[in-house]
Amino acid sequence: MGEFFSTILTLPTAFYTVLLGVVVGYWLLSALGLAGGEMIDGWIGGDGHGHGAHGFGDHTLVDGTHHPQHGIFDPLMRLGLGGIPITVVLTVIVLVGWVLTYYADVYLLRLVPGTPLRIAAGAAIIFVNFCISLPVAALALRPLRKLLRKMQPGPPRPILGQVATIRSPVNRVTGTASVEDGGAGLILQIRDEDPQRFKRGDRIVLIEYLEDQNAYRAVSEDEFRGG
């Protein structure tokens, strides 16, 4: 056991041990609800519609037309890792790299004579094992990618121009409305400068999306139709 810890806590294996500790820590924090979502979680690629709020945001690897981070993840896209959460991809890559480096350290690196050559060989092992871990991770995650593609929802219906019903008082900082989408319905944030303009039950039409507030501006249905 002492030899095992000595190996994983010294280079080159220690490089991947640190990364493995980071991803394990991330998953533990996620399990406790203290990480995820707005951190680095997401999907490699994009949802093709530019709607990160639908679960396929700008941090995704999904085949589509909207790829804000496409250049960063090009190698992973070419390996067929599109459509898989980036945290899952990184976890598998790091785990594979750690295992390969550990066994290379135990069975190969100790055969290299001299400290300078061993350091150079260790650096080479880190790089080579990273390159190997990419296709191995792609192969291991291929079944998950197929499953996620089946679960991917279709393109969201356009929101602007739809009729909604006021659910709670609307002012410049709060207010909600519901939109029938053929399913369970959507609850949207509505904002308006005049707190007396809308009351509960009023029918409105969404006319503008306020990206910084993740909310919408609206006019009454009568006003929209020129009544």
Question: Key terms for this structure?
Answer:
single chain; 227 residues; alpha+beta; 5-stranded antiparallel β-sheet; 6 helices; 5 strands; elongated
Characterise this structure:
The chain is an alpha+beta fold and 227 residues long. 41% of the residues lie in helices and 11% in strands. It contains six helices and five strands. It has helices spanning 2-8, 13-31, 74-78, 86-107, 115-151, 221-224; strands at residues 163-166, 176-179, 186-189, 203-210, 215-220. The chain has a five-stranded antiparallel sheet with strand order 3-2-1-4-5. A hairpin with a 6-residue loop joins β2 and β3.
How many beta strands in the DSSP annotation? 5
Strand content: 5-15%
Taking the alpha carbons of the first and last residues, their distance comes to 80 Å
Structural class: alpha+beta
List the helices and strands and how they pair.
Elements: H1 2-8, H2 13-31, H3 74-78, H4 86-107, H5 115-151, E1 163-166, E2 176-179, E3 186-189, E4 203-210, E5 215-220, H6 221-224
Antiparallel strand pairs: 1-2, 1-4, 2-3, 4-5
Helix pairs in contact: 2-4, 4-5
Q: What is this structure, in a nutshell?
A:
By secondary structure, the protein is α+β, with helices and mostly antiparallel strands.
